[in-house]
Amino acid sequence: MSTWEEFKRTRPKFYNIEVAAVETLASSLRDGVECKVADEFESGIDNVAFKVIFTDEIKWICRVRAQRENHSVAFASAKLNSSVATMRYVKSNSSIPVPAVYAHEARNTRPGLGSGYIVMEWISGSEVDPDDIPDIVEQDEKQVYEQLAFVTTQLWKLRFDKIGPLYENDLGQTYVGPFVDEQGNSSGPFDTAVEYFKFKVAGIRTTFNDFLNKNPELSDSEKRRARTICSLYEKVASELSDHDYGTFPLTHGDLGTHNVLFERDEDGQLQINGVLDWDYAHASAWPDFGQFPTLLEIDWPSLEAGQYSSLALDSLRHQQKLYLCGVRKYEDTTRLDGYPLLSEIIDTAAVRVSEFILLYSNPRDEVDVPLLLKYIREWRRDWKDE
């Protein structure tokens, strides 16, 4: 593994992150107790996580955000503040194990600490991916997906009256606020699922228009196809109000074994010890919430094109079944206030249609219009193309 200095030489966005600055910050937060940053670190697209070890053997994690020229200060600040607010809310209102937050700064100006940081509790455990462990026993696989289902059902019970990311006010109270894009533009929060999906489609329309303007050499048929896709998405969004019951569940946004730490309990059972990376969490529309966790999703265009091997597809279906069994095990079946059961929402026709808007919106990728219409008609038998 490369050292931190070697790593950041090839990644300019991390240039303003220094190990010494992290150590100085952590020590100051504990009245001068000395500490060292471990050699190992974890990096993502926009963040790096350092393990801080104090002389009294206390361990923390310092997660520092990179500085990116195409990211506005407002965007970076909103992302970090929302992540902190969500972790605090989930920790206080559910049984999901989430790191305690000790300090954070969303608009950092100190050299060596990037564009902002979160100092939080270190949680022991390791990632577990059943696909990468050839000798994993059947009970372990079952436990992994049941535990993911436990997290989902806990989030399902956290309801809000609007759709949007969570933030905290000056009194530490949680509220649903706007989505902020990379340019710093705010949208929402939204009162209905239709408003939310219209917002997502407006972004798709902007992306497609930029694509058409930058590629004047495209044929007339390619241009018509792009406009057809946008118009179709807009019509779908205006009617995608399934399961819009007035309050909305909290979604993690990137739930999967890659963001979960497991440990074995005294009986040898794998148990979730920590759920990490809440950057994409938000109160969500039900069709958004009803998607399978990230690593269990089926790519519908690839499936229809026959690009899954029977072995891979069987394995994925098996894992989905284990997850759904876990959902039925942990979900609240009392149907309070008329809310739908989670197991009745996951992977429904409305969810599959919403996935096209949420996942298949890159104009450079082939969006199969007939395939989209096929899923739309499974959702709405009375659908008219006009």
Short description:
With 386 residues, the protein is of the alpha+beta class.
SS-based class? alpha+beta
Rg, nearest Å: 22 Å
The CATH C-level class name of the largest domain: Alpha Beta
What strand order characterises the main sheet? 1-2-3-5-4
Number of strands: 14
**What is the typical, i.e. mean, pLDDT?**
90
What is the CATH topology classification name of the largest domain?
Answer: Aminoglycoside 3'-phosphotransferase, Chain: A, domain 2
Basic shape:
globular
* Percent of residues in β-strands: 15-25%
The low-pLDDT segments are: none
Give the number of domains: 2
What is the oligomeric state here?
Answer: single chain
Overall CATH architecture of the largest domain: Alpha-Beta Complex
How many DSSP helices? 11
Distance separating the two termini: 57 Å
**Order of helices and strands, N to C?**
HHEEEHEEHEEEEEHHEEEEHHHHH
Described by strand count, sense and barrel closure, the largest sheet is: 5 strands, antiparallel
Helix fraction, binned, reads 25-40%
